[in-house]
Amino acid sequence: MDISLLLVPIDFSECSANALEYAKKFAAGLKAELILIHVIDSRRTEEIAEFIKEPMEQVKERLINQAKQSFRRFLSKDNDKDLIKETIVSYGRPFQEIAIKARELQVDIVLMGGYGSRGKGQIDEIFFGSTVEKVVRLLPCPVLCVPMGWSEAGVS
After folding, report:
1. For every one of its 156 residues, what pLDDT tens digit does the chain have, with 9 covering 90 and above?
2. How far apart are CA 92 and CA 42, in angstroms?
3. 20 to 30 A Cα–Cα from 101, which one of 3, 77, 110, 112?
4. CA gap 150, 82 in Å, rounded
5. Which residues of 68-94 are buried (b: 16+ CB within 10 A; e: fewer)?
6. What order do you get walking across the sheet with 143-147 strand by strand?
7. 152 and 22 in contact (C-beta within 8 Å)?
8. Type and span of the H or E element at 102
């Protein structure tokens, strides 16, 4: 299987930074490119709009702009920018948007950070599954989950 394009979901956490480091090593060894995606969770946007009593579209636009700024900060110290083909800010349910973009872009593999056995301890993840698990169920391409602490693992 020829791997030339990887999709890496980014939530700006230490976990996704770890996955990105791993993805860069993985991509460099294959001479592949990375597309990074951040998904603004539509459910959280609705909650925020309701809480602060602002129109949903206004909150959505603000969150999109914040995500774009966060990408710039997240990648500002990156020495491997040539591996990154594109950054995408999307809106919806994270697992669905990741799967939709992976199919649209015809990526060869999705490489995601995971919290591993330590988990985040959230009840909905225990009962309804993690984003990684849901993405795996939706995609025909391989999905590689990189647990915290694996960025230094040998990748070649």
Report:
1. 689 999 999 999 888 888 899 999 999 999 999 999 999 999 899 999 999 999 999 999 999 999 999 999 988 877 777 889 999 999 999 888 999 999 999 999 999 887 644 445 554 444 445 776 766 667 678 888 887 766 454 444
2. 5
3. 77
4. 22
5. eeebeebeeeeeeeebbeebbbbebeb
6. 84-92, 33-41, 5-9, 109-114, 143-147
7. no
8. helix 94-105
Structural domain boundaries in the chain: 5-147
How many other CB atoms sit within 10 Å of the CB of residue 6?
Answer: 25
Query: CA dihedral in degrees (55, 38, 93, 40; nearest 10)?
Result: -20
- What distance in Å separates the CA atoms of residue 110 and residue 138, rounded to the nearest whole number? 12
Task: Tell me the pTM.
Answer: 0.82
- H or E segment and range at residue 67: helix 56-75
The one-character DSSP state at 108 is S
In angstroms, the CA 143 to CA 156 distance is 18
124, burial (CB in 10 Å: exposed 0-12, middle 13-18, buried 19+)? exposed
What's the CATH fold of domain 5-147?
Rossmann fold (3.40.50)
Whole-angstrom Cα distance, residue 15 to residue 34?
Answer: 17
